[in-house]
Amino acid sequence: MNKRKKFTRMIPDDVRVEDLTIDDITCGATKCGEGFHCYSKEKTSLRKFGTERACKECGVELIDWDRVHLNDVNDSEFVFQEMKSEIIRHLFWHTPIEDDAIVEAFRRGRTGTKERAHKLLRQRIGKFNSFMDGRQTPMGKDEIVNYAQHATATCCRKCLKAWHNIDLEVPLSDEQLNFCTDLVLKYIDLRVPHLTEHPVEENTIYSILDEHYRH
C-alpha cells in the first residue's frame, strides 16, 4: 500500500479526523469546517488577515489569547482545551502513544521523566536555531517527551511564540524552561496516569502496559 503524502494545508473532506495519525500531517494542516485550525503560522496569518492570532487558513479567531498567554500552569486544563482546536495538538492528545515510549517512561519513573524532559527542552528550544526550528522535535516515536512537546506547543520556538508568547530569539529563562517542563509533565500525567515517581521493575512494567495501555 502506498503511503499518502503528509497534509500540509487543508485536509480533504473525505478524510476523517479520527482516521488521521501524527504521521499524516504537519504543523500547518487544517480542517476548518470541522473546527480544527492552525494558529502557529503567524506570518501567514498576518499577510492574509492582518493579524497574527487568526487561523492561517480561514482567518477565524477563537482563542482567548490574553488568558492563554498568562502562562499559568495552574490553568493548564483551559489552555490544553484551547490548544486542541489546532489539529496537530488534537492528534497528539488523542493518538495512541507507542508502547516503547510508555515503557521508557516507567523505566525512568516520573522523577526521571521530568529530568529527561527538562534536559530535552533545554537542548531543543532553550535557544533559537533558525536552521532547525520546526524540525528539532521528532514526531512521537519511542520518547514520550516528543508527544508531550507537540501536544503542548513546546516543540519549537515558533509554536512557543504563538501559544505562550515567549520571544522567538531570546534564550529561555529558568522560569520559562521550568514552565515548559511543567506543561510537558501535565500532559504525561494525563496520558500515563499510572506512572510512579520512581522506576518500575521490568516485569512489572509490561503487566501495567497490558492492563492499562493496550487495547
The coarse overall form would be: globular
Spell the H/E element sequence.
HHHHHHHHH
Unreliable runs: none
Distance, first to last CA:
25 Å
Question: How would you state the average pLDDT, rounded?
Answer: 94
Task: Walk me through what this model shows.
- This protein is mainly α and 215 residues long.
- Helices cover 47% and strands 0% of the residues.
- The chain contains nine helices and no strands.
In terms of topology, how is this protein built?
Blueprint: H1 42-49, H2 65-68, H3 76-83, H4 87-94, H5 99-125, H6 144-151, H7 157-164, H8 174-191, H9 202-213
Helix pairs in contact: 4-6, 5-8, 5-9, 6-8
Task: State the gist of this model.
By secondary structure, the chain is mainly alpha-helical. The chain has 9 helices and no strands.
List keywords for this structure.
215 residues, single chain, mainly alpha
